[in-house]
Design brief:
The protein is of the alpha+beta class. It is 32% helix and 13% strand. A hairpin with a 3-residue loop joins strand 2 and strand 3. The chain starts with 13 loop residues before the first strand and ends in a 9-residue tail after the last helix.
Length: 68
């Protein structure tokens, strides 16, 4: 396989809120509720997006999840 094989998904740095179920197995509503509680940050850049590392930390129950 080559480095750019289209069959291998490349993990994005930013994930659209509409795609979080695909990448993280949680619903959009769950992401929006977590953001409303201040647990994660939804960034408005070309749509609503979350930082993939922040989602990982939040799902693992990590502290200090905000990514600048």
């Amino acid at each position: 396989m080559t480095k750019h094989d289209p069959k291998i998904p490349v993990r994005p740095i930013w994930v659209r809120v509409s795609d979080v179920a695909l990448w993280f197995g949680v619903s959009r509503a769950t992401v929006y509720r977590a953001a409303a509680r201040g647990e994660i940050t939804i960034h408005r850049q070309r749509g609503s997006r979350v930082h993939a590392d922040e989602m990982d930390r939040w799902l693992r129950g990590g502290e200090g999840t905000t990514v600048a």
